[in-house]
Amino acid sequence: MRKRINRRTFLRNTAALSAVSAFNIVPAYAAPKSKDSKKNNAAPPSEKLNLAIIGCSHQGGGIGKGAAGSGLVNVVALCDVVASRAGGFKAKHKDAKVYNDFRKMFDEMGDKIDACTVGVPDHAHFPISMLAMSLGKSIYVEKPLAHTFEECELLMAAEKKYKVACQMGNQGHSGGQRLQFKAWVEAGIIKNVRKVDACMNKGRRWHPWGKVTAFPEEQPKPEGMNWDVWCGTAPVHPYNSKYDPGNWRGWYDYGDGAFGDWGPHTLDTIHRFLKLGLPYEIRADKLEGQNDFIYPMGSTIAFEFAERGKDMPAMAINWYDGTRNKPPRPKELDGKRNVPACGKVMYSDDLVFMGGTHSSGLRIIPETKMKDMSSKFPEIDKGDTNQNHMKNFLYAAMGREECNSKFAVSGPLTQVFTLGCIAQRLGGTLKFDTKTKQITNNARANALLKGHAPRKGWEEFYKLA
Q1: Single pTM value for the model
Q2: Among 2, 183, 336, 463, which residue's beta carbon has the most beta carbons within 10 A?
Q3: Can you give the pLDDT at residue 30?
Q4: So what's the pLDDT on residue 43?
Q5: Bigger pLDDT: 388 vs 386
């Protein structure tokens, strides 16, 4: 298909140091360490990763800036379906080559790239990631990890097969909440959790659209846009600004809605440290404005998880999205305080916890209970890179540490979201066999685990795992 060897693989497997001279830049793990390499967390050029930024605007631009500003990379390639969107990066990284097709970029520069950031629409995460991994590139992929349940399954298999550093961009998973949650579970403060109410009650871009009964009509594309690559493996609809820039998230064909957007920042620690795995039942308890094209204006989706050994009984997660669809206010909450617009409440046998998203810490409510228990809280070791998700990834790509949100962790988490998205789309109750990973009571829902068949010319990416 394409070259399977890259610069990093070559350097790692080469015994002769003279072979390194064939390249202008040697990555950190193949070069001697400089005494100055730790100053300001920067490294000299010969110790840096060669980075490709894929998706150069919006969130893609944000994570690209985070990587470029880390002092750990040389930006050698820029890729965006509208090449002009890479202009800001190009001005700062004048030697970087610009592309509007990631396939061409890897064909031409595959032996010069060590790692990639991928900040593109949900449906496009999969083909880019699979190709990069198959070529030995470490990869940072924005959340949600992929668009469908099966794509997550294949990405997890590829992570094992290609043994590259893989990180999903739920940034809080390198922050204080993850460390606090883990420590509180190990200390026995968080145990016997029976129910979680989680929410995202802020407005979404598709909320003002009202009733949608068809795909929008064609509009002129931005100048130079590679619409074929934007659509990728997904169905092709004529370009409209209600898809790009930024509006794709509300469409079933391209995005994973509010749940796929905010669930990774809200439920990641709960899923990981309570060892939830996959639910056996998913219910659409409320759907406001359900239709065949975009996500509802509001929804309540319930997930039932089986017991998981000692101190981990069967539990439920209730997800509330929509500006008017708020979770029940816990009676333990003090005064006039409310559940955060993006946050969660956890109910255990003994305690009630409330928290926000990303790195926001958990509190025990009421506050008097939090104060009473303060002497029992364990000390939390924050480590060197535990507060910076991007640096954690870059160090992992250099072989120095492990990704905090590797695909083996973020893949099953994202699969929970994809199951919720199917319930938002179809309604009703879905029965899920956690061993066979099949929906057993709804044939259409089961087919949506895979989603649309990849369109002609894009099938190859599904064969790389």
Answers
A1: 0.91
A2: 183
A3: 36
A4: 65
A5: 388
Residue 9: phi and psi, rounded to 5, are -60, -45
pLDDT of residue 309: 84
Closest CA to 57 of 20, 94, 82: 82
Asked whether the beta carbons of 324 and 298 are under 8 A apart, the reply is yes
Q: What is the pLDDT of residue 423?
A: 98
Question: DSSP letters of 31-96?
Answer: SPPPTTTTGGG---GGGSEEEEEE--SHHHHHHHHHHHTTTSEEEEEEE-SSGGGGHHHHHH-TT-
Q: What is the mean pLDDT of residues 34-42?
A: 44
**Distances 371 to 360, 364, 365 between C-alpha atoms, Å:** 18, 9, 10
- What DSSP element (H or E) covers 117? strand 115-118
Q: In this structure, are residues 77 and 49 in contact, taking their beta carbons and an 8 Å threshold?
A: no
| Domain 174-390+413-447 CATH (choose: 1.10.12, 3.30.360, 3.30.70, 3.40.50) | 3.30.360
CA distance 314 to 296: 28
> The dihedral of CA 350, 356, 357, 360: what is its sign?
negative
Alpha-carbon gap, residue 338 to 347, rounded angstroms: 16
Q: DSSP string spanning 241-282?
A: TTTTTTGGGGBTTT--HHHHHHHHHHSHHHHHHTT----SEE
d(CA 74, CA 52): 9
Contact criterion met (CB below 8 Å) for 152 and 418: yes
Q: How confident is the model at residue 336 (pLDDT cuts 50, 70, 90)?
A: confident
Query: For residue 367, what are its two tokens?
Result: 């506050």
User: Three-class SS of residue 402?
Assistant: coil
Residue with tokens 């991994």: 133
105 within 8 A of 79, measured Cβ to Cβ: yes
DSSP state of 215: P
